[in-house]
Each structure stands twice: as C-alpha cells, then as structure tokens.
Amino acid sequence: MLELTHFSSQHWVITPAALALTEAVPASISDQKWLLVLTGIAATEFTQRGTAFEHSPPTQTLRFLPEIKEPCDYVIGRHGIPKPPGNEGLQYRLGFELENWSLFVTFAHTRNLDADWDQFAIRRWRASPFRYGTDVLSQREVTRIFDGVEVDFTVADQNTRWYGISYNINLLGRIVFTGVVIT
C-alpha cells in the first residue's frame, strides 16, 4: 500500500452540527456534534514503470490521513472543550468519532511522458479501518474514530506519472480523547 504523508494543500472548516427538532440538547460541550470538512491535495510523485500498455492493469491501493488536529484544537480552544490531564500523545490521543461521512477523491495531476494512450482510474475509495478505544473523560467505548482514506486505483500505461490526490471529506461526529495503547 502506498502511504501519502505530504500535503501540498490542506484546508478545513469545522462548525457545530445543527440539532433536529426531536434531538436533545447535548448535556455538555464534550457531547456536541461537529461538521468537519477537509479539502486539499495529498501529494506524491508516482511513476508507473513497464514495457507496454496493460489491458488489465493491477489495482493498487493508497492511503492518506489529512490533518485533523488543527481544526479540533481550534474548536477545543474556542468553545472550551475540556481536555484530559497530561500530554497529548503520551497520556491521551485526540480523535474524531464518526457518526456519518462522505468522501470524494480524484487524481490531482497526471502526465504521460511519451504521449501515447494511457488510462488513469480511481476504482474505489473508502474510509480506512476505524481506530477504536475508550474515551478517557467519559469512559465510553468509541469504535469509529476517523483514521484516513484508502483509494484503489489503476494506471494502465508505462511511463505515466501522477502527482497527487485531490480530496473532499465531510465528517459528522464528536471530538474524543482516547487512551494511548503501549505495545
């Protein structure tokens, strides 16, 4: 699996999610649902090597995890969401527990070096397998913590390159703080 860890562009918006008329008001700010929108380009320089066009190119998978710490820290500071005692990463881990999500990805830039026929295809995208844990403040089990996006793609010709994945990710959920598991 190809792991994309460099982002040439990242943008976000986070806002409280509106309540339906039948929904109860959150008991505390820690129970507030948020709508988090992440957009940008996960960058790479991937070159498909080979000797000829492939009629049935192999499907490959890439994974990326956009930055969620900055928007969550913004909301934590602005709305006074209590954090656990200790240091993030040592005593607890920040996460975004999902209730619902919508993802979109596409190639950001492609190039064929010898100008013959080529095929670039995004076959499928999905949320990466979720992280899980126990919220250290509420002691509630959390089982759907956002941990990135996986994308299946094919490139059907030799000497072709692509330089990144454009993405738009919409997440509805809660900010959580889980314990750090030491292995």
Share in helix: under 10%
User: How much of the sequence is in beta strands?
Assistant: over 45%
Radius of gyration: 20 Å
Tally of helical runs: 1
pLDDT below 50 for ≥5 consecutive residues: which ranges? none
Number of strands: 11
The main pleated sheet reads as:
5 strands, antiparallel
| Cα distance spanning the termini | 23 Å
The total number of structural domains is 1
Helix and strand content put the structural class at mainly beta
Question: What gross morphology would you assign?
Answer: elongated
Mean pLDDT over all positions: 90
> H/E element string?
EEEEHEEEEEEE
List keywords for this structure.
5-stranded antiparallel beta sheet, 11 strands, 4-stranded mixed beta sheet, 183 residues, mainly beta
Short characterization:
The chain is mainly beta and 183 residues long. The chain is built from 1 helix and 11 strands, in the order ββββαβββββββ. It has one domain.
Describe the protein's architecture and organization.
With 183 residues, the chain is mostly beta strands. The protein has one domain (2-19, 28-179). The chain contains 1 helix and 11 strands, in the order ββββαβββββββ. Strands 2, 3, 5, 6 and 11 form a 5-stranded antiparallel β-sheet that branches. It has a 4-stranded mixed β-sheet with strand order 1-4-10-7, with no helix packed on it. A two-stranded antiparallel ribbon has the order 8-9. A hairpin with a 6-residue loop joins strand 8 (131-134) and strand 9. The mean pLDDT is 90.
